[in-house]
Specification:
CATH architecture of the largest domain: 2-Layer Sandwich
Number of strands: 7
Number of helices: 9
Order of helices and strands: HEHHEEHHEEHEHHEH
Number of domains: 2
Distance between the termini: 35 Å
Shape: globular
Largest sheet: 4 strands, mixed
Radius of gyration: 17 Å
Strand order of the largest sheet: 6-5-4-7
Oligomer: single chain
């Protein structure tokens, strides 16, 4: 089912997942969308107040408007679709991992998303129940062929790591697939950018 046009989805996802403000040329280059198409989409999103335009020097930069309910819902829909589109081993592991009840946010990341040859399954768990999350990973690792490696953090620690621009965490946010807690993902991103 196609609900959100592909290039609109790409632009919103890009603005959501990248910690730095982006101008139209960066967006166009990174997403391989013509400047004209990017301009048209950004204009529409700005008119709908889904994104905000910031003027810095001579350039215009864009960011998600986290104060707009429609923007939040649109971001959540995009995140849900990314999870639904998982295939193969990523889907198999995701279906099992997202059942962990004691995490506010679960993100699947790493090589399991990119190729058929992977050594382990990397998962970010945002929870205060570190021991239970560790045991959960060990449990799946015993019944599956590849081990599940949990990166387990508290929400405030994740926000602080993002604020410090820690590259490993930025990569998880940039490339990972949210399996649970789309609303928490958006809250973490919003708080990290304050």
């Amino acid at each position: 089912m196609k609900m959100i046009p592909k290039n609109i989805k790409k632009i919103i996802s890009y603005l959501l997942r990248n910690s730095k403000l982006s101008n139209i040329n960066q967006i166009s280059r990174e997403l391989k969308i013509s400047v004209g198409s990017a301009f048209k989409i950004l204009k529409e999103l700005e008119e709908a107040k889904i994104i905000l335009q910031l003027n810095l020097g001579n350039a215009k930069y864009y960011k998600i408007n986290f104060e707009n309910k429609e923007a939040i819902k649109l971001c959540e829909l995009i995140l849900l679709k990314e999870e639904r589109d998982l295939k193969g081993y990523a889907k198999m592991y995701a279906d099992e991992i997202k059942n962990f009840k004691d995490a506010d946010l679960i993100i699947l990341f790493g090589s399991v998303l990119e190729n058929k040859k992977f050594n382990d399954v990397d998962v970010l768990f945002v929870t205060n129940k570190i021991k239970i999350a560790t045991e959960f990973c060990l449990g799946i690792s015993k019944i599956r062929t590849k081990p599940v490696v949990g990166l387990i953090m508290k929400k405030e620690d994740l926000v602080n790591e993002l604020k410090k621009d820690k590259q490993p965490i930025l990569n998880v946010i940039k490339t990972g697939v949210v399996l649970k807690g789309e609303d928490v993902f958006l809250e973490v991103i919003k708080n990290a950018r304050l």
